[in-house]
């Protein structure tokens, strides 16, 4: 086919057509969803967002298994929150280290610290879900704020920042649970993956399409927990105490996000690729239980991303000069938009920035997820993860 004096083969036309279609969806995805945090920040700065004036009492719930060192290091940051009325409930999930003695000593020092435990020999696929249920039942306040034993709030106003979002109709508040920045490519891989996922679920919630949250920084009402019958529908799964609860119960009008840098919680990242891969596989194992609308929405972005890169490469291989110039232009536009939104969001949260490593991470991470969701689940190791 000849257009304006330039000859294009059928392969070239297909490649450039797919490239344009996927390019426009990628731009839509970044401006509509990934830009949600920055868009909300602008509204807050312009005083267009209303927060709760009162400070209702809050129960902070932490489930810990063999986490004595982390509790010693990070629990004081939770106990020293600048908030008028709150309790901290730590559930000892069958720890064999010094967790029990540490908690007993801390209870003497902090009157608002309570402890409970998962009975030894509890026959549950997820003793953490059992532990969290015990913690919820032991709580005396309606607002429940969840985090992990290895998490450190960024600021003494963490509870206040999360709680200010609970208007009358709000049942869920989603926060950002980040990983501490360390040296090395593995840490860069982990922190980018965590940031990307957070911008996605926070941005989709801001667009009234909430689909998940993370237990490192998640709040919801006690009555909501019991209305959903707790974790009864997911007891057969080892994971999903956070994202499946959100995916099941969140609606377009009962969920808010908290994006202030002071509301971030920081966790210790995995130091080996093997452990991080297992952790990621465990998290992905419950994605099949998301609502159909959530699964479709989550599948579109990596699919269009994959076809964008594939058509980009084929345009270089089979294209003429015009096709190649067009492909380069589209890639550069997407890269500028992507880099600007991700790095501006990273700066807002106090995260590292990504430039030269971003294209590598952008291609590698969806391929890794695809591997986990297909080949890994067929291996013996994959079968040890409950994929039901």
Q: Approximately how much beta-strand content do the residues carry?
A: 5-15%
List segments where confidence is low: pLDDT < 50 over at least 5 consecutive residues: 378-388
Tally of DSSP helical segments:
14
CATH H-level homologous superfamily name of the largest domain: Spore Coat Polysaccharide Biosynthesis Protein SpsA, Chain A
How would you classify the quaternary structure?
single chain
Query: CATH top level of the largest domain?
Result: Alpha Beta
Helix content: 40-55%
Through-space gap between termini: 50 Å
Evaluate the radius of gyration.
23 Å
Alpha-beta content class: alpha/beta
Task: Summarize the structure in words.
The chain has 388 residues and is α/β, with parallel strands linked by helices. It folds into 2 domains: 2-36 and 294-383; 40-271, Alpha-Beta Complex (Spore Coat Polysaccharide Biosynthesis Protein SpsA, Chain A), CATH 3.90.550.10. It is 51% helix and 12% strand. The protein has 14 helices and 12 strands. The chain has helices at residues 10-34, 36-45, 68-79, 99-109, 127-138, 158-163, 185-206, 222-227, 243-249, 273-284, 292-318, 321-349, 358-373, 380-383, and strands spanning 2-3, 6-7, 58-64, 86-92, 113-117, 143-148, 151-153, 172-174, 177-179, 218-221, 255-257, 265-267. A hairpin with a 2-residue loop joins strand 1 (2-3) and strand 2 (6-7). Helix 1 (10-34) packs across helix 11 (292-318) and helix 1 packs parallel to helix 12. The chain starts with a strand and ends in a 5-residue tail after the last helix. 38% of the residues are buried.
